Amino acid sequence: MALHADLIRAAGPDLVLVMSADHIYRLDYAPVIEFHLQQAASVTIVTTDVADEADATRFSNVRTRGNRVTEFAYKPDQPLGKTVASEVFVYDTAELLATLDELTAAGQLGDYGEHLLPRLVAGAGLRFCPGGLLAGCRHARRLPTGPPRFSGWQVLPPRRP
């Protein structure tokens, strides 16, 4: 994301929705965005539970209390439990850019899970949105059906730098 910070600044969005490019699922992003706005979070992570805790080491792990993420571990050797990040994130733009700037200055960018999310957890601004509780969230091995529907939201196409 740091590579696209200037594009994010130029577009001036209120929030930034980030999705993994290597996952196939069906998810209506509108409830995730609404949840994020209601919580006034720095970042919201959509989570899901894996059936076997041993499988959690292949993903980012989270521990939660209420709707707050209290601990985040990026593909840990020992799982924190069965709750994992589904790699759908909604960021507050100002908080995201400020944190990216801090990490860039400190030479600590790396992957999102190495420094960005742990920094936001430390700032207590991280919330989780359990996938099983979201209407329209069905993690499955099928492609999304049609474009996302956002009421009043402008979805900008990607631009190459």
UniProtKB/TrEMBL annotation:
Family matches, as Pfam families: NTP_transferase
**Boundaries of each Nucleotidyl transferase domain copy?**
3-122
Q: What keywords is this UniProt entry annotated with?
A: Glycogen biosynthesis, Nucleotidyltransferase, Transferase
Query: The organism sits in which domain of life?
Result: Bacteria
List where the protein spans the membrane: none
Q: Which InterPro entries match?
A: ADP-Glc_PPase, NTP_transferase_dom, Nucleotide-diphossugar_trans
Q: Does the keyword Nucleotidyltransferase apply?
A: yes
Per its UniProt record, what PANTHER family does this chain match?
GLUCOSE-1-PHOSPHATE ADENYLYLTRANSFERASE, GLUCOSE-1-PHOSPHATE ADENYLYLTRANSFERASE-RELATED
Q: What does the sequence similarity comment in the record state about its family?
A: Belongs to the bacterial/plant glucose-1-phosphate adenylyltransferase family.
Entry protein name: Sugar phosphate nucleotidyltransferase
Q: Which organism is it from?
A: Deinococcus lacus
